[in-house]
């Protein structure tokens, strides 16, 4: 299927690896020009090389990058100095650490809200009006399946990402945006084969005294699909939400979790 977005410009955050890279890869394959953002210069350079070598990338598709912390005012300024406007924005920031809520002080909460709620809102604010004026815009926020099924030790993430979810639910349904072919949706990943998951599994293995392979197999056993997702298939879902064909989908929270969420709604 031709997604109809070749030649568009996309900002992809947290794009040097994992789910962010999967999204950038899927967009590049569709002929979308991308600006990758992440904090690590070396990892970004490696990501750019991979995308430029992508066999499905149309030859004239640009791949640019900015090494910056998108959760800071300075980082966002650096990104928009590179390119001031985008047709597609993929917001993504690393989740805050797990723990017991009794140990989180105000600074921990502010840092979580800043990264996982306020930063996406700032990026939306910077781009959405120009999208509406052009009659096309796609914003996809990478949040978490924990928004639908909260995990007790991920309270910082549960709270901050749920705040973003509520904000998007209202904004996406405003007639000024929806009638102008500007959509805002959230992609909620479950367990994907990423460095973050491996780190979490390593911590669980150390705590339990079990081999990490055993811990990972047990985790897979809790998922109806009996496997972890791949960044490539997550990216494909993201690319579809950015497509011309997805113009009637907005304000939605779309789970990509292999069937792990047990609810009806």
TrEMBL record:
Q: Name one Pfam family in it.
A: adh_short_C2
The superkingdom listed in its UniProt entry is Bacteria
Note the InterPro entries from the entry.
NAD(P)-bd_dom_sf, SDR, SDR_fam
Q: Where is the signal peptide?
A: none
Which family is annotated?
Belongs to the short-chain dehydrogenases/reductases (SDR) family.
Q: What is this protein called?
A: SDR family oxidoreductase
